[in-house]
Amino acid sequence: MSIETLVESFPMEGNVLLIGPMAAAKPLFGQMLAKRWVSSGGSLLYMLTSAPRKAVEANLRTFGFDDEELRNVCLVDYIPGSTLEQIDSRVWQAPLEDPDTLERVVTVVKSHGQGPWMVLIPSVTLLLANTPDRNRLIETLKRLFYGKSAVDLAALAVNTKMFQEENEMLIRDAERVLSFRRERDTVYLKVERGVPGWVGKEIVMPVPADILDGTKKEVAKRTSQLLRLKSEKAEGTMKSFGTGVPEIDKHLPEGIPYPSFTVVTGPGASGKPLFALYILQGWLESGGKAVYVATSTSPDFARQSVKLLGGDLTAFERAGQLGYVDFAKVEGIRDVSDNVIQVNLSRPEMLRRGLEEMATRLGTDMESALKLIPAVNLFFMFKGKREEFFDNLMDLIEQGTWLMTVNAEAFRKVADRLENRADNLIYTDMTPDNHIRARIVRAAVDFDGGEFVLPVSPDVLEAIKQEAEERRKQITSLK
Description:
By secondary structure, this protein is an alpha/beta fold.
């Protein structure tokens, strides 16, 4: 018997509980069921708990979803402590740990599509973590998805290594229970209850090693992010800072949380570094220290740009709050001034060394300082080093506060991976009359996802575009 046979013979009604340790491919089975469901004309409500949107959509395509079928998938991004808000035609954000909001989500999303409906929650465990009234949340889940359900088919997954008491409450009343275990690169699935002819049988669930490894990393990072965020909110210890720009702060009323990883993404020449400079100014004005990695623009041009925006970086330099790591063809680290060093960043290992050196000069450590890397894609121009650069970045951003800008059109797969990892994701593009248009796509705090225009003139934008092109040519010459 094969996994395909099990999926084809699976009762497509009621509920199924998927149990097992973390990274045992439980959501992947749910996605296989979802493929059968949507292919038969149903709609899917997918709650983004253990993985970000783009990673989930990539997996759904791996299981055969085409563009038409994806249009029948509604996604709800789990943002603890936020409010229920529609982001676009088929994407919402919501604090799914709140039982009342969870119930509203089902009602609201179902009103935007046609049934029959399936719901998939890849990690009930993350909803339970640091949630004060877990029993009420469990009872709400059971009322919504067990018995006379609010949807036609519900697939819920739990990590059996956590919250055993709550898990037992779900297991006891579930119509079908499937257990999962993983040994190295092999996943075993066993039907514990509810599927005639399959109970007690264990089969191998073929999953490509790259999907298993990628899923494991995504789940681990997402879990870490959410647990940290929920803990900080519960303890009242979350910190944030504003930018001082009314257009931005209106859409991020709680400010930008930290420590966090912020990505400003969008097509080329869409003002991403300028948005990042607004964030940098807000950080410095709040008293923080920062290291600017000069990739697409030089330190002088960063100063000039901020002056055009009405600020003054030199004041923060004199105060010992801001230093630069300038991308240049040098050996080791070359001093330019007290707050500017030159580093050959075409060598992946030199980024950490440069950041650590400048943080020390600022009288802090690398974790405490904000690290700004505009045009991070330029690192991936060096053939043969792309994966090494990416792995280094992933290791670095695990701690502290990071801000990067990413060209969404260059090195698309790498850009996707950075965007997926971001705690805060901001999209920019250009209006027909050459102004920067922006939208908060995701944030670790409450946010307004509506579009807004930054107060930057087309002349300033054109100057930055020309400087960035010259800088790109200089860096290309270092290859």
